[in-house]
Structures are given as C-alpha cells and as structure tokens.
Design brief:
There is one protein chain. This protein is mostly helical and 352 residues long. 70% of the residues lie in helices and 1% in strands. The protein has one domain. It has helices at residues 3-26, 30-38, 44-65, 83-99, 104-112, 116-133, 138-148, 157-163, 168-188, 191-194, 197-220, 236-247, 256-275, 286-305, 312-319, 323-341; strands at residues 80-81, 150-151. The protein has a two-stranded antiparallel sheet. It starts with a helix and ends in an 11-residue tail after the last helix.
Length: 352
C-alpha cells in the first residue's frame, strides 16, 4: 500500500473513531430523530441531523469551490442513474430501518455498547448488501436499473444554477449558502435545541466529519497512478466489504470504508467502556429477532439500490447537492414514515 493510501486509511480510522464516540454519546440517528419528532414530540434530535446536513453541505461545497476535491468523481454525481430504483431502494431502507430500530451506522455504535441485537443487524445487512451488489439479487437489481435509468446533463443543484447563466463557483456557493443556512436556521430556531450543547456539538462534528472524508479521499488520496475512490461517510457497501475482509483478508487491501466501519465500532466500544455505558443485551423473543433481521435485510438490499443509507445519502450524498441523492432521501423518509406512522406501521412487540 502506497503512502497516499496509508494516509487515507488512517484518516478513515480516525473519522470512524470520532463518529463512533459522538454517535454513542449523542444518539445521532435519523430514525431516532424522526421517531422523536413524530411519536414523542421531541424535535431536538431531528435538529441535530439538520445541523449536520447544513454543515456538511457548506463545508463540502467550500472544498469543491476551492478546487481541493472533485465531488463529480463520487458515485452521487454520475450522469446515469435510475430514479425509480433509487427511490424504491430508499423506501425499503427506510422501512427496514424502523423494523431494526436503527440504521447500519447506529447498529455499529450500539454493537460497541454491547447490544448483541445489533450484531445480527450488522451481519444480515452485510450479507444482503453483498447479495444485492454481486450475488443472487444482483441480476434483478441490474435489470431494473438498465430498464429505468436515464442520463441527465444536469446532476446537481449548482449545475442547475450554472445552466441558468451563473458561473460554476457562484452557483456552488449560492446553493450551499441558501440550503446550508436554511438547515442551520431550522436547527437553531428550536429553543430546546439551543439549550442542548451536546446535540449542537454532535451536529457540528458529524457535519465536519463528512467534509473530512471528502478531503481525505479526494485530496490526500489523490494520486495520478493509483487514485483513491472519492467518497466519505457511508455504511452499506462498507459493512459488506468489512464483513468480507474479516473472512477473506488474505490478498485484500484495507480501504477508507472498511476502516471507517472498524473505527465506528472501536470508537463506540472505547467510549462505552470509559463512561460505564457498556452492558450486554440481546433479544427477548424470537419474533423480535426475526423482525430485526428482516429489517436488516431490507436495509442491505435497499441501501445498495439507493446507492447509500441514511448517512451515505442523507448526509454524504446531500452534501454534494446531487439531485439523485434528493430522490434517494425522499424514498428513505417515505419508508420511515410508513414504518412509524402509516398503515404498515411497525408496532412495538410486547414480548420484546
């Protein structure tokens, strides 16, 4: 592994460690945020998520405007994509997230705290993600994408503004300023959130971590002969890759995504042990385990179809201001709403 690749791997590990610690201490999670808002009337966590998105957009677009990172090399801004498949994938992911009581990144954080239910979620999610990427489900996914994909000349909000006559950098900064400011104002307009210093810190840190991921892979990992894929925080494919690496590491190489997964678990574990939060817990009924595993399967398959999860699309994808990411996130929000409030609402298990 060359020096640039080593730097990217080290950066991924540090980013993962920080995210794991912050995730454990703050409860950072899209599903928990929406449940708190819709079911309990507590809007603090959703404001934390909004702040993270706003900071991620502002910082990531600033890096791009200064020419430090080419976001166009990421999977989120590719000209050909299938909006129907991405929306459907987001829908499946969102509903599965409710069934499993959290997304893939949250499962890694809870696993570090000793939650053995999350071990099942991580394993099943990784298996179904790999099946959808390269295995039994892959042919069906590929056929669906080929039948519905389209090629777009304009793939992002800044590209739309640029096509209207604005320059590339002004378009990028205007879009980032308006959307980022709107999200940050939304967050701080809520008085209970303004008093929650821990949640404010969590939103700021996670948003900066997204930009740090772009900087690590897009700038530090830039190499004319062996470039690192330009990416940032995301957890569906990396969990699958990490699972495969654990089993078949001989001849394989570590990458940003794999070490981020390991880092999140290690950061959460170290924080849980240091703060006395570590305790083992598991399932209390077979029905609970079945539902949790079913949700993980939907997240694994849906996350691959959507090209990301509630973090991979909900934060990292949106930080690129990709139009495709807005489609995927709409699907995730719709699936979560159906699971929390719709006719197919996932009801609590009395025996769980």
């Amino acid at each position: 592994m060359d020096s640039a690749a080593n730097i990217v791997v080290l950066a991924g590990l540090v980013i993962g460690l920080i995210y794991g610690a912050v995730g454990l201490l703050s409860g950072f999670c899209m599903m928990s945020s929406l449940r708190g808002l819709w079911a309990e009337g507590d809007g603090r966590l959703v404001r934390t998520y909004a702040l993270a998105i706003g900071v991620a957009i502002a910082a990531s677009q600033l890096l791009a405007a200064r020419g430090l990172v080419d976001l166009g090399k990421s999977i989120y801004l590719q000209p050909s994509f299938s909006a129907p498949v991405m929306f459907l994938g987001g829908l499946l992911f969102g509903y599965g997230m409710v069934m499993s009581n959290g997304c893939g990144s949250r499962a890694l954080v809870l696993l570090g705290r000793g939650n053995l239910r999350s071990f099942v979620v991580v394993i099943v999610l990784g298996i179904f993600a790999e099946m959808t990427l390269k295995g039994l489900i892959a042919p069906a996914r590929i056929a669906m994408v080929q039948a519905s994909q389209a090629t777009a000349k304009l793939t992002s909000v800044p590209a739309l503004l640029s096509a209207a006559g604005l320059g590339e950098i002004p378009s990028r900064m205007i879009a980032a300023s308006v959307l980022g400011a709107a999200l940050i104002i939304f967050a701080f307009a809520h008085e209970p959130f303004r008093k929650s210093w821990g949640q404010i810190a969590a939103g700021l840190i996670v948003g900066v971590l997204v930009a740090a991921g772009w900087y690590a892979t897009g700038y530090l990992g830039a190499d004319d002969f062996n470039p690192t894929p330009v990416t940032s925080l995301t957890f569906i494919a990396p969990i699958a890759d990490a699972l495969q690496y654990v089993m078949l590491s001989t001849g394989s190489t570590l990458n940003f995504g794999i070490v981020t997964v390991f880092g999140v678990f290690a950061g959460s574990l170290a924080t849980a042990l240091a703060t006395g939060r570590f305790h083992l817990e598991g399932y209390q009924s077979p029905r609970h385990m079945l539902r949790s595993a079913g949700g993980a399967a939907l997240m694994g398959a849906g996350g691959v179809m959507a090209l990301g999860c509630s973090i991979g699309q909900g934060l990292t994808g949106l930080s690129t201001l990709s139009l495709a990411s807005f489609v995927a996130v709409a699907g995730i929000l719709a699936g979560t709403a159906i699971g929390l409030r719709g006719a197919l609402r996932v009801r609590p298990l009395a025996a769980a």
